[in-house]
Amino acid sequence: MQLEYSIEGGDFSHAGFASSQVKRVLKQLNVDPKLIKRVVVCLYEAEVNVVAHAYSGIIHVLINTNEIVMKLADKGPGIPDISLAMQKGYSTASDKVREMGFGAGMGLPNIQHNADDFKISSNVGEGTNLEITIKL
Amino acid sequence: MDKRELHHALKILPEVCIGCSNCMRVCPTHALRISNGKAILYPNRCIDCGECYRVCPVNAIIVEQDDFNIIFEYKRRVALIPAVLLGQFTEDVTTDDIHTALIQLGFTDVFEVENSADFVGEYINKYLADPDKPKPVISSFCPAIVRLIQVKYPALVDNIMLLKPPLDLSAMYYKKMLMEQGVGEQDIGIFYVTPCAAKIAAVKSPVGEDKSEISGVINMDFIYNKVLKVYKNRDKEYEALNRETACNPKNLMWSLTNGEANFVKAKCLAIDSLDNAMEFLDKVENQEIGDVDFLEIRACDESCAGGVLTTGNRFLTVQRLKSFFNDEKVNYDDDKANISICDKYRDYLVGRISVEPIAPRGIDKLDDDMTKAMKKMERINRIMCYLPGIDCGSCGAPTCQTLAEDIVHGRAAISHCIFLQKTMEQIPMLNPSHSFRIMEKIWGKERFQKDCSKAKTYRIRR
């Protein structure tokens, strides 16, 4: 089963839409609430990242009985130093984003912490790709 | 999973129900359908919130209570009354008058539920100080909210506070006190006067505890009428018993919005009404809410003052209870000056204050088996392509989505949708007289006959 959502950069009022929808589907599929929690945390953080940093993005969520794979591809500035971005508390978020309560530099580390498998790649000036896997 | 049968205080009287579907449209958990012209309830989805009871135009939904006369089976008959009962009457009816009327009705003792509120408040703060408790801790006070979380937000059951509410503590306190005075346990009957259906369900099938200390439950609207009658018929020699309530005003506010939050010395929010509760719980479940330690959530607007069995206007009830505060000059925020009456039996009560972990009862799952659930979901999505998406309710289900789910679960047919009937008649796959019979089967034959009483029956209750 595959679900697809698009995200618009800067649209904080709709950040969390995809994670809410995925949560609803997983509840219907009788997935363990603890796993749903981890999926929702990962997807929400990843959604907020796209909203806060990129111009637009596409989310693909693949669900099967073994795992849930979330792929996020965005068009945006990209990340010049991924290892730096993965450090807790490191953030390049603008003041405007921070004023809204985001940009604490916990997003990517939090995704990595909650995911069973986490891949990130980025091209500066083009965009960033995430692949987050949670095993069932 | 909890295997015990769920008790629901709400009952539909089929002989009274006119199948108007008002209840089906307001049910927050989609627990109601219309079939054969009557409302039917899916018990596993019902959370006893009573929203259906509020909107029924013909009183076909009732809140089952115990027979009042069972109180006389006990030598000591304790009326355990919530403060909102005191707020039901006009200013001229004093607290003493209400206590006096209850004694005249046959009770031997009257005790406010909120007497143990400060004690519970103290233990909530201790509970919140435990770093192992998942935050935000959600109050266990409102049984409709506990049940809502069990069925709609199973991921949050671990956040529900595992402490008993003042109702149980006060019942235990009073029983213990009487027993120490030499009254036999079998002679003590404790009767709770309830402002809502959910509290009845909580007493009859408690969540997280084996049995309740409460011997019976009596509806507040019933007691209201009885008390008022006694008061109105008082004779010239009438003198109210001088029964000053020992309960301090801060305690008495407990069941109002913020009443519980006012005792909590941590970051907390108070939320009332089901719509607000569901909006917020959705965010909590999405992990969007950080930095909150405690959530006081109640299903009714204005909390228990808005309970479905209250008679008085909820805003006036709140006003009345708040006026108790102004009458007093004592500073009730000073903890040292106020030692809870429960302090007398502290060890006894603390040993009984906890409840067992609460089991989830998720209703959203389509099947226990994930592969089957995925197949069902694909089928639902296919069916949704054809349904009109206007949630008209003509099929006897509250939304197109619920109809699609009912079809997949074998409880309804695609031809129940009036839009698809029209489409099928065009092809033609369905004969118009057959589609007419389908609608009669859902709504009953009478629904298709001229009936001029509707203008009267279809008044808006609220």
Kindly summarize this structure in a few lines.
The complex is a heterodimer of chains A (136) and B (462). Chain A has 136 residues and is of the alpha+beta class. Chain A is built from 5 helices and 5 strands, in the order βααββαααββ.
Which terms summarize this structure?
heterodimer, A: 136 residues, alpha+beta, Heat Shock Protein 90, 5 strands, 29% strand, B: 462 residues, alpha/beta, Alpha-Beta Plaits, 3 domains, four-stranded parallel β-sheet, three-stranded parallel β-sheet
Describe the structure.
The complex is a heterodimer of chains A (136) and B (462). Chain A has 136 residues and is α+β, with helices and mostly antiparallel strands. Chain A has a single domain (2-135), classed as Histidine kinase-like ATPase, C-terminal domain (Heat Shock Protein 90). Chain A contains five helices and five strands, in the order βααββαααββ. Chain A has a five-stranded antiparallel β-sheet, covered by helices on one side. In chain A, a hairpin with a 3-residue loop joins strand 2 (56-63) and strand 3. In chain A, helix 1 (17-28) packs antiparallel against helix 2 (33-53) and helix 2 packs antiparallel against helix 5 (107-114). The model of chain A has no long low-confidence stretch (mean pLDDT 88). By secondary structure, chain B is an alpha/beta fold. Chain B has three domains: 10-63, Alpha-Beta Plaits, CATH 3.30.70.20; 68-350, no CATH class; 370-454, no CATH class. Helix content of chain B is 37%, strand content 10%. Chain B is built from 18 helices and eleven strands. Chain B has helices at 22-26, 51-55, 83-86, 95-105, 117-129, 143-152, 166-180, 197-204, 220-232, 249-252, 274-285, 314-327, 346-350, 370-386, 400-408, 418-426, 432-443, 454-457; strands at 10-12, 32-35, 38-41, 61-63, 76-81, 109-112, 137-138, 188-194, 216-219, 268-272, 294-298. In chain B, helix 11 (274-285) links the parallel strand 10 (268-272) and strand 11 (294-298).
